[in-house]
Amino acid sequence: MLFNRNSSSLSATHSLSRYKMISDINVVPYVDVLLVVLAIFVITAPLMAHGVLVKLPKGGVDVLPSNDLPLTVTIDRQGDVRINEGRGEDARVDDPALSRLAAGVLGRRPRTPVILRADEKTEYGRIIQIMALLKSAGAPSIGLMTADARR
Fold first, then answer.
1. Secondary structure (DSSP) of 98-123
2. Which residue would you say has higher pLDDT here, 10 or 24?
């Protein structure tokens, strides 16, 4: 006889078949944690959406090609304006002359970079006024020149 049916061997095989090992992962706790984290993000996302939309400058320095001389406009502490087309000295101008000269340069060379230099004591309203004049003269964008913060 191949199989021994005595009581001791029958009870041992019977007890092993009753307690099988489960090799499945219980994912219910993981799903619960995931839903709690999702609820936290859904609740806090609208609170973090408030802010000012700004276009940040790129890290690094872009070197201007030699044929693209910038149009530099300088405003001193008193609000007087000087313009430099990249070839020569700054020429002092009033607002209508600034608009006319900038429109002439940007008409001949539309891709000319426009850079605005202003003293730190210059009134904010004057800077905005000059920026508006340059925009109406055809400047697609205006760069603001600053001093090196490490010095």
1. HHHHHHHHHHH-TT--EEEEE-TTS-
2. 24
Question: What is the predicted pLDDT for the residue at 23?
Answer: 79
Pick from 86, 102, 95: which is nearest to 137 by CA?
102
pTM summary value: 0.55
Question: Could you tell me how many helices (H) and strands (E) the chain has, helices first?
Answer: 4, 5
pLDDT digits (tens, 9 = 90+) for 33-85: 999 999 998 888 777 655 434 333 444 555 555 566 888 898 888 888 988 87
Domain ranges of the chain: 71-144
CATH no. for 71-144: 3.30.420.270
Q: 81 pairs with which residues across the strands? A: 75, 93
Angle (CA) 138-64-74 rounded to 5° is 55
The answer, yes or no, to whether residue 108 has pLDDT greater than 70, is yes
* 35's tokens: 């839903």
**How far apart (Å, rounded) are the C-alpha atoms in residues 114 and 84?**
10
Asked if residue 91 lies in contact with residue 73, where contact means CB atoms within 8 angstroms, the answer is: no
At CA 87, angle to CA 77 and CA 73, rounded to 5? 25
Residue linked to tokens 């700004």: 54
